[in-house]
Amino acid sequence: MNNYLLIDTNILISAIDSDSKFLKNAIKLILDSSFELCTTCKNISEFLAVLTRSREVDINGVEALEILESLLLNFGVLYPSEKSFRKFVELIPNYRPRGLWIYDIEIVSIGFSYGVSRIVTQNICDCQRIKEIGVETLEYL
What we know:
Helices cover 50% and strands 13% of the residues. It is α/β, with parallel strands linked by helices. The protein has one domain: Rossmann fold, CATH 3.40.50.1010. Strand 4, helix 7 and strand 5 form a beta-alpha-beta unit. The chain is globular, with a radius of gyration of 15 Å.
């Protein structure tokens, strides 16, 4: 799966946020990509949580799901498996993550179990610490 890119939640958000400085690059990646794009079911639940928690933007769960479904036309969705769980359990003692970083470890574990070797994210700090996956940003693709 060398041509596969794992798309992080913040890239999905950037693709629909008209105020994001990454909007154009996120849309270009999603629509004009020469890569096979994938995301995890964990990213999907994070995406829905982020969209529906804002007090400034009134989006309910049904509307958020419609937005998500239009994005997912361009993605494969990766699901946890016994293999990804074993990798997750292996990475925890290696990195000793705390708090929200545990979610990044889980997302990487799911991608890794499918042979995905790179993630596109704006969350460079946390993901670069995980040696098992290469980290790309929208600026450098």
